Structure formats: C-alpha cells, structure tokens
Amino acid sequence: MTTKPRLRVGRVLLPGVLAVGLFGLMALIVLNTSFGGSQGFPESIAITSELGYAMFQLDELQSTAGSIPNTESFLAAFFLIAVVLDAALDGAIVLAKREEGGKPVVALPSQRDDAEPARSATGRETVADGGSDSTESVTTTGSDADSATDSTAAGNGNDDNDGDGNTGGDA
Amino acid sequence: MAVEVQYYVLLSMALFSIGLFGILTRRNALLFLMSVELMLNAANINLIAFAFYHGNLTGQVFALFTMALAAAEVAIGLGILLVLYRNFRDVDVTVPTTMRW
C-alpha cells in the first residue's frame, strides 16, 4: 500500500497560505518590473580566475584589457569567514560533547578508563566493537560516578578473589 | 541567449517561499535546517543573477562567502539538534519551552 502526501489542514494551514501568498505578491511585483537587458561578462575573461584574484586581493594579476569593472577585493571578508568557520567548528564540538559524571565521553579513548578493569575482572570480556555487552546491564546515568569508582574498588577486590579461585581451581 | 534576470528572481523567490513554508508549517528541527538552507540558496541565486546583470563579479564572490556561512550555520544547527535530542529524546521544536519568551 502506498501512501500519498496529504495536505495537512488545521493549525498549519494559515502560515502555509501566508507563505504561498507572499510568493504570489512578490511574483506579481517582479513580473510587472522591467529590468532591461543584462550587462553580462566579456567573452575573453576567465571568470573563475577573476573570482580568485578578487577574493585574495591580487589586484595586479587581474586582467586589465576589457576587464570586469568595479570588482571589489574580499581579503578581509575571507579571513573573517575563516574565523567564523573555525568558531563554528569549535562550537559544534562543544555542543556535541557528551559528559557523564563530569567527565567527557570520548569514542576512542587514548587511556584506559578506570571502570574497564572492573568489568574485565568480573569475568566479562570487553566488547571490541564498542557495543554494550549483553551479559551485563550497565546503566550509565549521570549520578553514578561515585558508584562507578566504588565498583572499581570492589572490582579490584574481586580480582584478587577470582584469581585465587582460578588458581585454586587449576591446581 | 541569456535568460532574463526576472526569471532568476522568480526562481529565487520560489525557493525562498518554499523555505518559508517549511519553517512556518513544520515542527521537525531537521526540516527547519533544510528550510533555512533553501532560503540562503535563494539569496545566493539573487546575488549571482544580479552580478551577471550588472557585469560585476562582487556578487559571485559574495555568494561564495554566503555558502561558507551556511556551512557554519549547519554545523552549529546540527550541534544544537544533537543536544535537543539528547535532552528531550525528540527533535520537535515545540517540545523545549523553557527558553521561550
């Protein structure tokens, strides 16, 4: 069974009609305005290289014979945009950072987490692909940072006990 | 033969109106981002069309800068969307009301 798009009526109908009406009004104004012919660019000029020269303020490289007049240089704007993009990258990283218990959660930790020996000490293997182990139910809520350290201590205690038990079992 | 400039303006107005329609009627934050992109691209079409109309390259260079600004806006927007989903388990823009008014 296929579903076809339906026109939603109700609360969103009035803003939608407003947007369509705005297009109608603007189209009416534009179609009744005489713009005249376009000036266009000269045939002998490479537009792309001229764009590059204008962007990096390379005025002496711009073609002079039959050139495109009144093209401004945009070096300051280029650096401003570079700074804005850098700030946006930092902002996106800050927004996407996830913290649990006051410590940021990273996808590929460079150091072993303190909680990891506790898990392996209890006999459960660390899942290599980053998925959660099906045999344990670790609830990572924000308030269990203290309990995580407690379980670490408990896990270390269990580590000795398990090791003794295993060696005893082997002997 | 070059297309007359009024058809470029009509195209950009249609794109702008589609973006405005999306912003006014949708509640999904992803569709909001897409609609804002449509409106920014409408501005780009106007800039490039009038650069050709005046025989001047300033509009084309400025359109490049607008694209970079759109990329920055999308980066921040997707970050906000991540936080929105993390806090509310939803990307409906009408759900978070604590910063309203």
TrEMBL record, chain A:
According to the record, the segments passing through the membrane are 12-31, 74-96
Q: Where is this region: Disordered?
A: 104-171
Query: Which top-rank group of organisms is this from?
Result: Archaea
Q: Give the compositionally biased regions (Low complexity).
A: 139-158
**The species this protein was found in:** Natrialba taiwanensis DSM 12281
- What is this protein called in UniProt? NADH dehydrogenase-like complex subunit J2
Annotated keywords:
Membrane, Transmembrane, Transmembrane helix
UniProtKB/TrEMBL annotation, chain B:
User: What would be an example GO MF term here?
Assistant: oxidoreductase activity, acting on NAD(P)H
GO cellular component terms, alphabetically, are: NADH dehydrogenase complex
Instruction: Output the GO biological process annotations, alphabetical, semicolon-separated.
Output: ATP synthesis coupled electron transport
Query: Which keywords describe this protein according to UniProt?
Result: Membrane, Transmembrane, Transmembrane helix, Transport
Give the record's membrane topology: Multi-pass membrane protein
Cellular location of this protein? Membrane
Kindly list the residue ranges recorded as spanning the membrane.
6-24, 31-55, 61-85
**What single Pfam family name could you report for this chain, choosing any that match?**
Oxidored_q2
InterPro entries recorded: NADH_UbQ_OxRdtase_chain4L/K, NUOK/Mnh_C1-like
Does the keyword field hold Transmembrane? Answer: yes
Q: Which family does it belong to?
A: Belongs to the complex I subunit 4L family.
Q: Which HAMAP family match?
A: NDH1_NuoK
Full protein name: NAD(P)H-quinone oxidoreductase subunit 4L
| Species of the source | Natrialba taiwanensis DSM 12281
